[in-house]
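Morning F.,

Quick status update on the modeling queue. The single chain you submitted on Monday has been processed. Sequence for confirmation:
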Amino acid sequence: MDLRRPLTRLLILAALLALCSLAALGRLAYLQLFRYGDFLARAEHQQQRIVEISPKRAEVLDRNLHTLAMSALVDSCFAVPAEIADTQMVAGLLGGVLDLPPEEVESRLASSRSFVWIARKLPPATSARIAALNLRGIYFQKEDERFYPKRQLAAALLGYVDIDDKGLGGIEYALDERIRSKPGRMLIFTDARRRWYDSTDSRPDAGSSVVLTVDENIQFIAERELAAAIHRTRAPAGSVVVQNPSNGEILAMANWPTFNPNALAGSPPDARMNRAISALYEPGSVFKVVTLSAAIDEGLTTPGEIVDCEMGAIYIGNHRIRDHKPYGRLTVAEVLAHSSDVGTIKIGLRLGAPKFYDYIRAYGFGSPTGIELPGESRGLLRRLENWTPISVGSISMGQEIGVTPVQMITAMSAIANGGLLYRPRVVLALRPAAELSVPSQPDPRRVIRETTAATMRRMLEGVVLNGTGRLARLDGHSAAGKTGTAQKLDPATGRYSQTQLIASFVGFAPVNNPAVAVLVQLDSPVGPHEGGAVAAPVFKRVAEQVLAYLNVPQDVPLPARTLRAKRNPRDEIGLADVADFSPMVRESSKTPADSSAHARREPLVPASTVALMEGEGVAVPSLAGKTVREVTEICQRLGVNPVLVGTGIVLEQEPPAGTAVPRGGTVTLRFGRAVPQSSPGSPSLDPPIRPPINISTNPPARLLSAMIAGGGR
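Structure tokens below.
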């Protein structure tokens, strides 16, 4: 082959070009047929970005389907830095609106070319100011923000969420997977220069709504009275728990200190603690109900047996234990009524350590109750083999054992209901979409015989009538309970403090057919510190209001002083200086986020009513024909204190309708059945009397029907 010939050289060049073309075609075929998916994924990774949007959390409702926690759409601001020409100028403008250092905003803009969050879940006023700047490369995306319309009401029980709407406490954390749906997504498309040119978003689905056993009105009563007691006694902490003893449902769980979950950043960590399930304390004399009920159940004593209380002193294992008073001979019922340590220890020693330990465990102490809340403490109960020679004596009077408020009220409820221990619970039902799910509950466990429980109820009634709990005596209802005053350990000395004490009262009412059990615990009150002096009056105020609200029939006659009552509760409890916990009227100081959420909602009370309450007085409306429950709700909204006489519907009221009374004043109402004025044979014009609320139903029929129909707020 002559390479000098032009034709030969052209043929060789053509062959080489053909080989190169074949190689290129083969490479293209390989990339298209075998590597297509890989390169497509790379391109999408470069051109698209997926940003998660906060999931929509379902509502949390009280037992009457009133909203306690909800989600609302707000604006979140993001930027596409590739579109911003002057980053420094934009950072300065945004920093001024968001109250952030311009350097911080600029560093966020420098972190990516395609997408960066500037500020999430902004108040409407702030997002409007940013939009008014009309900055290129600055955009908005709708996100769901958690909002608590009643602010601090039941805050520790409800819990709180983080910026991504993940539950961090309370029910929000315990049922996070049920309440929280899958997060939504925003898909952002960018060009070769990383400039945003399109986006699509998918909204998250809602989770399962949670219906609590809590009643927001009873919760409000508990929190208001706890706040008043804290103010009066200057105690740094405390709890009030209201339970239905017939099924274990928690109707209210109040804690102090408290916080506003809408403004979480300003609350200290101890305010977020649910003390009712987490705070351990030595119960003191309240625990004597366990000691005496165990001895009576074992047939070791009777209420009428005489016990020599040794004039207030007893020796156990070279330790001298002294009574708070030098009692001589007392019956067992009087030992409980007067809270004699010596008498209780003598009865506890008859039980012996093994049998006593079995009863303590049967009452649920030393193990979690199983309530549907995170952070529950199991209590403090040493194993039997670790008991010392004086352990039986110490534990008999409530020392050397640690309990939580929810454990203590659950044990008292077992005595109230006839000897059955129910697991306390706060979740009444779950509602995913249109379905209804009622969580299964374990069967109650019998702790003591029914006859023993009846005997203890009579003895505990004696505590209120003739013993240390006289200040817990109710107007119109019988009550039973036990006072407790427990010394706290001084960390500096390792001994019991003479000034730092836990004052408590646990009781129930009415005695024969208990509708509610109430626990009051105050940590380290200043001044009077006995449970009968500072905790029993709080029980009285809470129980009276709750029983009236639930329309529980009165079982004892009202004293004459109550019928003539014209007292002003504000003067008694100093509410003028206590924070207003009303979930319906007063606006507390709010963060911008809180204010914006309120701006989108209608007020729960008319502005005219609010103006009256903030002014000189409240105009009392006509309450004729109203039931006890309706009157209680109206008076609570108005901020006045009802004195209820009788049952049925309102026949008379004092002062009359239209009279202005000061906020916190008293309205006395007489109830009964109206006498028809119509002629014979004509239909009655009397308004119907609503039946009492049956809070034992699980869940109430009216609640289930409303939920199945998709009702509720």
